[in-house]
Amino acid sequence: MTLTCFKAYDIRGRLGAELNEDIARRIGRAFAQTLGARRVVIGRDCRESSVALTTAATEGLIAAGADVLDLGLCGTEEMYHAVTHLGADGGIEVTASHNPMDYNGMKMVRAASAPLDAETGLAAVKALAESGDFAQAVPGSLHEALGARKSYIETVLGLIDIPALRPMTILVNAGNGAAGPTFDAIEAELAARAAPLRFVKLHHTPDGSFPHGIPNPLLPENQPVTAQAVLAAGADMGVAWDGDFDRCFLFDHLGRFIPGEYIVGLLAEAFLACEPGATIVHDPRVIWNTQDVVARAGGQAVMARTGHAFLKQVMRDTGAVYGGEMSAHHYFRDFMACDSGMIPWLLIAELVGRRGMPLADLLAERMARFPSSGEINFRLENPAAAVAAVVAALECQALSRDDTDGVSLTFADWRLNLRSSNTEPLLRLNVEARGDAGLVARAVARISALIRAV
């Protein structure tokens, strides 16, 4: 058997041939056997297929001798937290995040919520799941992970200075994903601690049929519904999550979507104010704003390959206080060096309160100084040929080239990154410039023409 659902650092596949209950059972058993795991945390998102896949993966884990601690419906970050909090040997979240309806997948970590990729065990899990050469073991057992959400909320709110919060109205859009119940628990605890925040909820109830579309706020076509709701509510800012809420996306009080790299810069500045000289990790796609902010604040900027497993490992290797990707993954040293979609918006609300100015004003100067294109996706049969065409046309004019992740070409006043997705059949383009939004638009038009001509 050849399993095509194994990707660079997680599992994603089309339901049926690429991922089904038998495959999930094999993966669960291989995960426990490969890691020698005696206790494994498991959780799931709200997709209709996730219940059956979680049951099958649990059966595999138990067959390999693992005791399984079941979180039920939860976000990926709740699984990360529970692995460390409960002293488990690993964790699995059954989720396809923002992928299409006919997909599902799994995100996995080792003990202490450490990332799992090909070099740290994922390749061995794949090989064993494919071969089916499983060892006999005394079956484990299934238990409810009692108290896990309460502990998770205590950790999350422990990173926030609640007395610094000021009265705000915040529009929250869960996209009918997994965020709603967890948010409600956070909201209740904030109210118990007298936080002066008022929330307006949109598409809040989990519904695996996703009646309002797949929750992927990074796509421009999905942003107007949140933007309009922010304006209608007179909210001070808006928050939208993806399906497993490990990413959150922010909107200012004018309903404008805030590209992720500017939030990375804002959070980096806030952490460096508390820890001068600290390390900040960022991805290679859009870098100039983050690097400028970190340099001005006296920190150390470290670039890591795109992808949560890669960022987490660099966070751990460097002891970085914070890391961020322009795709809205935000990583925190004091949250197991893992990503969270709940911590960022809370920190931004705290920062708005401290600075006494709206999010739009906090970011206006940075967005003008370093305009960017946003991520532009191309669905292609031959992405490598398209990358080669762009490089052939433009590399001779570039000041430098970097191949950390895909191809990055730097010119005097602008920069591009072109890379294939780790999880989807897409070629992704990002362009940034120094103070010239028109230059960004012209560069995007030229590169897009080169790509489409292949």
Automatic annotation (TrEMBL):
Alphabetical UniProt keywords: Isomerase, Magnesium, Metal-binding, Phosphoprotein
Q: Which cofactors does this protein require?
A: Mg(2+)
Keyword Cytoplasm attributed: no
GO MF term set: magnesium ion binding; phosphomannomutase activity
Could you tell me which residue ranges the Alpha-D-phosphohexomutase C-terminal domain spans? Answer: 375-447
Q: Where is the signal peptide?
A: none
Which InterPro entries would you find in this protein's record? A-D-PHexomutase_a/b/a-I, A-D-PHexomutase_a/b/a-I/II/III, A-D-PHexomutase_a/b/a-II, A-D-PHexomutase_a/b/a-III, A-D-PHexomutase_C, A-D-PHexomutase_C_sf, A-D-PHexomutase_CS, Alpha-D-phosphohexomutase_SF
The family assignment reads: Belongs to the phosphohexose mutase family.
Q: What is this protein called?
A: Phosphomannomutase
